[in-house]
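Hey, can you fold this one?
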Amino acid sequence: MNLYFRLIYLLLKSWGKTPIAPLATSVIHMKVLPNDLDINFHMNNGRFLTIMDLGRMDLLKRSGTLGMAVKNKWMPIVGTATIDFLRPLKLWQSYQLHTQITHWDDKWFYLEQVFYSRNKMIAKGTIKGLLRAKSGNVSPQDIMEKLNPGIVSPGVDKLEPSEIIENEV
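Sure. Predicted structure:
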């Protein structure tokens, strides 16, 4: 239930924020709450993935993609999620989640999501996702063109090998 409250709070708060470009970085600020903890009293590894959902929602909302998705009845779908954990987050510790689209292909968007606290990287995740209509997958290039005419996907060759998720058939 806590995450529904966080989602509602995040969406309400985002209405007052400046819209961002589709390739800009969304940053949300949060604290570790008691129900985020595991038996070791640090943030549960599954909770990181759930918080990453909130980061993607903020990016969708602030870039204008969420409004387009709601209007067209598109559903966001995650195809792959990977995460590397570097440091723990303790109870009441403040942190930020940075979310950015790194590139896209004919089917998938690729995003990087990085957790920071006290100027240190805590965890780094990579997401492969898409938007799906009743008729099938929506082309990422078509979506990006509607948001920013003339935009092209940043080159995959500019990314580190560890940041690239291969397409799966």
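The chain has one domain: 2-8+26-148. Let me know if you want another pass with a different chain boundary.
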